[in-house]
Amino acid sequence: MKRSSMLTVITYAALVSMLAAGCSSTSQPTGGTGQAPNGGAASSGGAKSGEPTTLTLLIGSTGTPYPATQAVAAEAEKKLNIKIKFDIKPDGTEGDNLVKTRLATGEMADILYYNSGSLLQALNPEENFVDLSKEPYMANLLDSYKETVTSNGKVFGVPGGSSNVGGILYNKKVYAELGLTVPKTWAEFIANSDKIKAAGKTAVIGSYKTTWTSQLFVLANQYNVQSQVPTFAKDYTENKAKYATTPAALRGFEMTSEVFKKGYYNKDFLATTYDTGLKMLAEGTGVQYPMLTSAIDALAQNYPDKVKDIGVFPIPSDNASLNGFTVWMPSSYYINKKSKNIDAAKKFVEFLISPEGQKAYMSKSKANGPYVVKGIQVPDDAFQAVKDMQTYFDNGKTLPALEFISPVKGPNLESILIEVGTGQKSAADGAADYDKDVRKQAQQLNLPGW
């Protein structure tokens, strides 16, 4: 999730101040999964009278963005006579590779739902996606969001859903049964985990079968890194700072290693999927899950009677005074520059971020954090875990994930962390390997100092 311009403190503060003032389980595909890049549809100006224009949309099926987009698509078909044909992609590295292949071969769908930030920059947005900078509706999006989908002054995406944070989802009911309190330091987290393990439950849920979930201790630790080393993002981008040689940044790799060494994971964590991890958390057989709060939607969808038992707390540092959340901007919808249906695609994304489109989206996807569309507020019936994080936003105890303030992100972090998280590689070696991993991409982006 990269971009060429840095997400400034000022623009990010704008998001937080707006929040203070006013204030993504796997869903199984139910639509078509056609692979044709444009669905064989006529252009928006060429469809016969009464016949809908068909657009293809490439999206993953994990979580609620898929059913939420389906809800918007149903309304768009009625209001705009535009039909969406969904094309489902896998998650993680496999999905990233598919997206890059489709773009390279000219087989990309009309619309792509994909990450904002550094991973977007790796797709060469100026070459592959339609510039939306001059569309009137872009004024309805927060600047702090738009910077995450901007390259060389051009804006390429519109958001899907709310922002969310990275932290530890936990089962409040089990915490209460065991007399545990939310940890403010890593030592307290370890003490809680020891008690959970002694009670015969999984202290920390591992779901490495869904490979991207291996990254949370490192990625969600960014608040702690940036709080201790305020220049880290800038220095990292300029090749002046490294994970392996910055103790605060190395700490995330050490956390990943320590949790494995202490036997906190479920025994079958290598074969456990994200869906199974959520099930364990909901049922209380697993008690703590390093995860993005976008998972709350999936929990509510599959375990509506259990979601009230789920809370969230930040990745603890070694200093209780540094307690805060790392924030992720929502993933986004991008229009394929080679689409034959650009006008219709523009109409669809405009509808998606309209009040009517957002209402349809929110019917299948509740807030996982603050919204980035102006005027869209976190509802009163927000999940308890979302309310848990609100105090941190109100008190300024949030900072953006590294991928939103630096364009440097290597493609192999998840596989490196699986090695660290299974004891195949030390934390120090894993961090050093990741420092090497980012070099190729930084050089491809022609960043100074690399």
Notable traits:
450 residues, globular, 13% strand, 6-stranded mixed beta sheet, 19 helices, 13 strands, alpha/beta, single chain
Structure description:
- This protein starts with 8 loop residues before the first helix and ends in a 6-residue tail after the last helix.
- The protein has 19 helices and 13 strands.
- The strands form 3 sheets. Strands 7, 8, 9, 10, 11 and 13 form a 6-stranded mixed β-sheet that branches. A 5-stranded mixed β-sheet has the order 2-1-3-12-6. The chain has a two-stranded antiparallel sheet with strand order 4-5.
- Helix content is 40%, strand content 13%.
- It is α/β, with parallel strands linked by helices.
